[in-house]
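Researcher: Re-running this chain for the archive, since the previous output was lost when a drive failed. Same request as before.
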Amino acid sequence: MRISRLLRRLRNNFQLSIITLMGLFGVIGITPYAVYRLTTGNYLVGTADTIIVVSTVLAILYAWRTGDTVKPGIYLAIIFSVGSTLIAINLGVNGLFWIYPLILFNFFMVSPGKALVATILVLLSLVGYAQVVPGSVFESDYQMISFLVTSMMASILSFVFAYRTHSQRDQLQQLAIHDPLTGARNRRAMNEELKIAASLQRRHGNSYGVLVMDLDHFKRINDSFGHQAGDQVLVDFVELIKNSSRKEDRLFRFGGEEFLLLLPNTEKTGLLAAAQHLQAQIAQHLQSPGGAVTMSIGGAILRRGEHWDEMLQRADKRLYRAKSAGRNCIIIDESSTAPLSCP
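Model: Regenerated structure tokens:
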């Protein structure tokens, strides 16, 4: 069961899987060299190899423990770049072979721009040292130029591949968590965000509230004016909510014409005020071909130690109470406040 959870985490987190895989390759590939060099008296290179191995293990453990893959990636790129440079300087031509896997490693570990900068710095360091101590790294200028040309070709090709891969992955991630019609986050993203909110509330006591919003009589718009008109109302609705909310608030498309707004650092009074503000904005500015559009709202505050799904169910029940009360109403959690703006 534990192994299946670990494998699932690797499947769901691309960068964690890359750091783990490349890190393990680095440990397996470098450890024998570290042992050999330390036992044969080459302590400088052996120590550099050992530092790389230990740093790699620590970075992998940190990434698994915290879920942060950015800092370990940058850390490993720096350690591997410095270590490979020292090895190449100490071993000369034989050490240059480590520069090529370093180039690939960096482009997997960090963003394409950072990886390209790291590669250029390594090459400049090697060339600079070779100019200060002739014959220490390259046997001739011809060999140095050949190495620079081939390594830069490998870097440029890796950059193009990594940049395109990053771009495509970002696009896929956007498609995976956003509603294609309105641009609001979808239910999959909503579940993840609510899980995070519940976790932060348990650990740090952060307060969260949700508003579940439903457009009143939306089916009439589709039936009377067509789905294209209904789609445009949904797009306009999302734009209005985003413009009327705080930057830290998160909007999700919960169902067909149902949306959920997650509000961090919000108590019951603030949640009610936010609902009133949004209801007024929609009533004033949202139009369909048949006239003004209104919405009903149900709200709930995340309770201490509560599962996020329980908060969601409570907010959903308040929404249906608001709709049953005549629509264009607001009912927040256990508030004794009467439904607002009801006809």
